[in-house]
Amino acid sequence: MNTPLFIVLFADNDIYCGKKTYEDCGWREIDNKPIKKIFFLLPTGDYMILADYDSYGRYTECTQIIAGNNAGKTQIEFIHVLGKRNGKIVEYKIHVLSGDVKVRLFDEENSYIKGLNTEIWKK
User: Are 26 and 90 within 8 A, CB to CB?
Assistant: First the structure.
């Protein structure tokens, strides 16, 4: 893949381009300053744009291969992209192979949301 997995447009109009692999996409290197919008590259080649959230989150969901030549290895199966605003969370669960996107809504106090690593969030 030759395209960054995401591009961040900050409120001051600076731009940060993520890296090109799911294993190390560069999310943790995003500057800690207000974000205007984020363009996420989907496996289909299309972009999903998140804007106007108070904060943004991203994490991966991995599975372990249990049979065949790759048994024991882990693989990224889903990318979770989240937007937080007014105590509500919108989660986009992206299947890495098919590109299918499932949208889920949560309250900020939901136990699933509270159980996420706080380091996934960027403002």
Answer: no
82 inside domain: yes
Contact present, 17 and 1 (Cβ < 8 Å): no
So what's the pLDDT on residue 1?
Answer: 58
pLDDT tens-digit series, residues 45-99: 999 999 999 999 999 998 888 888 888 888 889 999 999 999 999 999 999 989 8
Q: How many domains does the structure of the chain reveal?
A: 1
Residue 46 belongs to some domain of the structure = yes
Q: Is residue 1 part of a domain?
A: no
**Any domain includes 80:** yes
Residues 6+ away with beta carbon under 8 Å from 114: none
Which among 29, 32, 33, 28 has a CA at the least distance from the CA of 12?
Answer: 33
Question: Given strand 47-51, what is the order of strands in its sheet?
Answer: 15-17, 6-10, 35-41, 47-51
Per the structure, the complete domain to which residue 66 belongs is given by: 6-122
